[in-house]
Amino acid sequence: MNFHAIEGCAHLEHNLKMSGSCPAGKLVLAKKIPMLVLLLGAWTATAVAKDIALISNKGNSLPEITLADVVKVCKGQTSRWPDGKPVTLIMRQPGSADLKIVEEKIYGLPAEALRGLISAANHSRTDRPAIIVTNSDEEVIRKVESVPGAVGLVDVYSITGAVKVVKIGGKLPLEAGYPLHGN
Q: Is the model's pTM score more than 0.85?
């Protein structure tokens, strides 16, 4: 919560105390309620902003990756890791609320165009798909855990011990400057 929100809450608390002791205080309180609603709305919007983590199969030797390389993986342009394992990206359905950050910051495409990109990336692979799409973060984690060479994109609060988190550009989710931080 920012300083102005805290200051607004302090004024509201004062006005609440005043409203019980004088009729004019009730008028002041009535004028402050819309402000409280706005403050709570701004705080709620901030609370739902989320970071998307890049997770990896524990057998992968991938401790860190650049943002440019993440983009290549996400677009199906990288077929093998340096250790020779095939690359597979596992992510949520295009158009889902949780994938919005990725659609904007990695792909720069609307959901429908992203579906076409996934289809084209998978069409060029003969051994296994470049990109697998699932319906939940739990499914992403299960698939990343079970597929050697797999990486996935999930809400940071969905991560379990079954996978490891990969740094992007030297940053972990929730660190300042992390590239997949929600707005």
A: no
